[in-house]
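Please fill in the sequence for the structure shown.

STRUCTURE ENCODING:
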């Protein structure tokens, strides 16, 4: 663990599940001055060898993330971060408030068409495959899924509430919203914005990122009841989520 004299500036990646936070973190970690150490509140995250860390207080966990983080000998770290998905706050109800009080914290909020996020989450739970890498030999797409109206409505509201909570809890100058769809289409442009937000020198990607998308098909080809759901949500605030091919 690190005990720096001058601590790197802190940041956190926030998002709903399956919104591309892992992919973004992998891209950020290509920068020689950036170190993001995975899911701080996930007991199985391999970036953190000590699962007992979750027995510590919220403040002690934040100190671990930003003051005593695991070192990397190949980096000169000036920005240090971690990522937290919305459900991980449920088991530690006071942690979000502690996060808002951490001095100088920059927040990168990753957003995605929330219907895509839910569909991906259900697929991952069914297959128990959460990540896909270039070295994987299985090219078969994940199985199609069926989503209930009730599950969709609950998930959409949870996402809206979480995004609003983040927006209302941090200074606008300390929040950057990154759209997953834009990150896929224009990674260099998105990362240039992030480098500027973190106030670090620009860095060109190597192109060696090995994390891959698990599902490349559109929603109407991955949801067995897509048209039923689209009809239910037509004319309401979530109708835009069913506009296949558009960023929402």
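FILLED IN BY: designer on duty
SEQUENCE:
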């Amino acid at each position: 663990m690190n005990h720096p004299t001058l601590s790197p500036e802190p940041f956190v990646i926030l998002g709903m599940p399956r919104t591309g936070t892992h992919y973004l973190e992998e891209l950020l970690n290509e920068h020689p001055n950036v170190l993001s150490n995975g899911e701080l509140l996930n007991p199985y995250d391999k970036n953190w060898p000590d699962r007992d860390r979750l027995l510590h207080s919220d403040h002690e966990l934040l100190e671990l993330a930003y003051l005593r983080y695991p070192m990397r000998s190949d980096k000169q770290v000036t920005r240090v971060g971690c990522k937290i998905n919305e459900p991980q706050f449920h088991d530690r109800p006071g942690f979000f408030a502690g996060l808002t009080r951490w001095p100088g914290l920059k927040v990168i909020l990753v957003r995605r068409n929330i219907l895509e996020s839910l569909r991906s989450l259900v697929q991952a739970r069914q297959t128990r495959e959460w990540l896909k890498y270039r070295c994987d030999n299985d090219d078969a797409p994940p199985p199609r899924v069926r989503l209930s109206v009730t599950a969709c409505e609950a998930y959409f509201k949870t996402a809206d509430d979480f995004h609003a909570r983040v927006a209302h809890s941090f200074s606008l100058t300390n929040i950057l919203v990154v759209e997953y769809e834009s990150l896929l289409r224009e990674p260099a442009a998105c990362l240039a914005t992030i480098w500027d937000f973190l106030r670090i020198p620009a860095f060109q990607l190597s192109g060696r990122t090995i994390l891959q998308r698990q599902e490349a098909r559109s929603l109407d080809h991955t949801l067995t009841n897509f048209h039923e759901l689209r009809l239910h949500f037509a004319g309401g605030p979530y109708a835009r989520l069913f506009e296949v091919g558009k960023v929402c």
